[in-house]
Amino acid sequence: MPSLPRTSREVQLATVPDGLPKAEHFVVAEVPLPAPDDGHVLVRNRFFHVFAALRTLIGGSVKGTPMPPLHPGDTLFGHAVGEVVSAAGDSGPQAGDLVSHWLGWREYAVVPVGQVTPLGDALPDPVAYLGQGGLAYAALTRDAEIRPGETVFVSGAAGAVGSLAGQIAHRLGAGQVIGSTSSQEKADRLISELGYDAAVIRGAAPIEEQLAKLAPDGIDVYLDNVGGDQLQAAIAAARPGARFVLVGALSGQMSPHGTGGTAPVELDAYQLILKRISMRAFQGFDQQARAQWLERFGGWLRAGDITFPYVRVAGIDNAPRALQEVIEGRHFGTVIVQL
Question: 133-281, what's its fold?
Answer without folding.
Answer: Rossmann fold (3.40.50)
